[in-house]
Each structure stands twice: as C-alpha cells, then as structure tokens.
Fold these 2 entries.
Entry 1:
Amino acid sequence: MDKQLQPHEFVAIKEQVIILNKAFNSVNDKNVKAVVQADVVETVKSILPDTEIATDFLNQLPEIATSRQRAERAFKQLAELVTPFPELSANQLGKLFKKVKKLPEPKWENLDRHEMTYLGWNDNGSQKKYIVAPRDGKLVGIYGDFDPKPLNGLCAICHQLGTVSMFLSKVKSRGADGNYTKRGNLICRDSSLCNAQLSSLDHLASFVETTLVK
Ligand SMILES: [Zn+2]
C-alpha cells in the first residue's frame, strides 16, 4: 500500500468531517447543508490521493459525517495511507539532543504516530519539554524549560486555543559575544492533542525556525 498522506493531512480530513457533522446537526436549510457538503468534498478531494480508499471515503462522506461508528471505520482505512512519524530509537534520539545528558524517553506506546507531525514529550520532574520536528527533510531536536503552570491561550505550533504553557528555549544570539538568548513561546501542554489538531505545517515551521539553535 502506498503511503501518500502526511499526518497533518489526515488531521485536516478529520477536521473537514467535523465541519460537515456540525453543519448536518445545526443547519436546517437544505441548500446551506448542500453548499457545506460540496465545499467539504472539494477540500477533502484536494488532500486525498487518488486511490480506491479515497474514492470510497468520498462516496461515504455524508454517512461518515453523521455516524461516529462509520467515521471510525473510515478513518481506520484512511490511516493505512498515512506515513506515520518514525519510531526513533534511544540512539537516534540521543543524536538529536547531543547536549542533554540524561534524555528521558518518550512513551511511544501512548502515541498515535499516524496523527503525529512532530514528536513532543514532557519531563515533569525537570520541567522540560523535548520536541523532534521535521526541517528541510530532516528531523531536528529542540528542548527547553516548560513552565508547569497551565494557561488558556493560543498555541504557537497548532494555532488553536487550548491549555498551553510557556516553553522557554535557548537560542544562539547573533550578537558578537556569542551569548545565548532565550525565546518564549506558548505551546500546548499535551503534544498529542497538539498533533491531533495540527492540520497545517506553517506555524510549526516558523516555531522551529525561531527556536532551533543554529
Ligand atoms: Zn498546539
């Protein structure tokens, strides 16, 4: 089976199904429903690769949007098209965080790698957050202090409102003294939730550019 969908595209399709579900549940006007449905079909079509599963999915879209059971079954099928985030060994992770002496391991068994554009995990003991994200076709490691205080705010990575905390990372200053400056970003406390609502790569890319020590 060809892997033709990226995790953020999978998330984007799920978002479209939610939009359609809301329209079916809250709009009475038949014409309005039809407009929303046509719009959702167009968007999903632009994301989905042209395969049998995709055609199947589009044909069933109205049922998928109204039945949770149908939706779960359809998403399971679609997941087969997704290139999951790679499960990195401790050795591979170590190479991405060379300056970290005792790198805590992410709990891979709790992660849904089909909905993972980046890897993020917290070490509550040391109040740190570790992030592995794609950049120019490679993976890069970013880490920093993660404030234990939860706040309501906009996440710099997924750009959704939710429970966020201040992530403070060292960024090499361009100054002549070579000193480090720190950059703060509010990001989701739970990186799994963040990934599950990450349907565009734009904000993640700028987060990586501004926090990566280059
Ligand atoms: Zn987020």
Entry 2:
Amino acid sequence: VIVQGGEGGGHTGSVATTVLLPQVVDAMDIPVVAAGGFHDGRGLVAALAYGAAGIAMGTRFLLTSDSTVPDAVKARYLAAAVKDVTVTTKVDGLPHRMLRTELVDALERSGRATSLLRAVRHAAAFRRESGMSWAEMVRDGLAMKHGKDLSWSQILLAANTPMLLRASMVDGRTDLGVMASGQVAGVIDDLPSCAELVDRLMAEAQATLHALPATA
Ligand SMILES: Cc1cc2nc3c(=O)[nH]c(=O)nc-3n(C[C@H](O)[C@H](O)[C@H](O)COP(=O)(O)O)c2cc1C
C-alpha cells in the first residue's frame, strides 16, 4: 500500500504524512510505502522510523535531468516557493495540489461551482481524445466513485485533468496546463539525474542514521 499525505502532489487529502502514515502502518499487515513530502535521505529515515517499508517520490523524480517534462515547465517548479504550491478544487472538482499559476488564480477568482453541463462537456472532450467508449468511462467513473462521497459532476469534471496535465507536462504550455506538484517543489532547486539522486539520498540516509545517538 502506498500512503500519500496531504503534502503530496496531484489529487491529495488534507491529512499530513506524519499523521496519516503511522495510522496506516498500524492498521495494515502488509508493507506500507510512504509518499507525500519526501525528497531527501532524512525523509527516508523518518519514514522508516514510522514503520514504512520505503518511500515513493513524485515531485522529486519529476525534477531530474532524466525526466522528459519540458525545461520551461521544470523551471516553473524550480522557481516555486513552498507557498506557491496550493490545493484547489476548481480544476476538476477534487482537491488537487499543484503550482499556483495564473490559470489557477483565475479559476479560484471565478468561484465557479461544479456545474453538470461543464462537467459533461469536459467528459465528452476527454472521450474524443482518449478514444474510450462511454461504457468504459462510466465503468471507470463508478470505480472512482466507489467508497467516496463524490457527485457525478465531480467524476465527470475529473475527466478534464489528463488533458490539462498533458498541456503542461508534454506540450510545455505553462499558461494553459495544470502543473501538479507536491509542497517539496518549494525546497528543490536542482535537476540531478535519477542515479545521482538515489545515490545522494542513500548517502544522506546513512549519514543521518550514523548521526543518531547510539542506543545501549
Ligand atoms: C505531476 C504529477 C502527476 C501525478 N499524477 C498522478 C496520477 O495520475 N495518479 C496518481 O495516483 N498519483 C499521481 N501523482 C501522485 C504521485 O504518484 C505521488 O503519490 C506524489 O507525487 C507523492 O508526493 P510528492 O509529490 O510529495 O513526492 C502525481 C504527482 C505529480 C507531481
């Protein structure tokens, strides 16, 4: 099981990793991987101390030289401070953590509530893009709705998200697209390769462990 605390990028909840993770570790008897807010070796050691089997990182791996995200988009993430990362429900009706851009500000200001008409329009556009049938979309929507208190408008509006993510992450349209991001974007300021990142993280974790006071 991967547990993502509220610090994490993309669709996210309101409970921080530090509060959520130990609860899930206590409730599960299979390995639990911690996500949300991790970017260095200290975080890995902290997650292990909470009883996690390891960490998963989204934002940190997005900001590597190996990541295929356009350079202009990576530059927006690198320039962001922690407070430039926000949670909005205005993009797709669900709490979604992303960089606070002009688009997000405009959506927040417009204060538009989730309307079924808008939702259906987005869903129809997504269907055309993805080539999915309405039956497949309804099936996926039902799976998404299962166990959650979501309206059909919210489910349909969520169909908009892949297109908005693609506009930024693939096409480099920082003006039009949504840039999902964890709060850690605010403390990341380099673009190592994935290999360099993992080596560095493991060395930091070892150093952190060695710096702990010895136990009897
Ligand atoms: C750009 C971006 C896109 C993401 N897209 C998805 C997704 O489609 N589905 C999903 O389950 N999680 C998605 N996530 C969440 C990540 O899988 C991961 O749980 C999260 O990034 C962990 O938090 P962190 O960003 O603090 O490392 C996304 C995260 C980012 C940053």
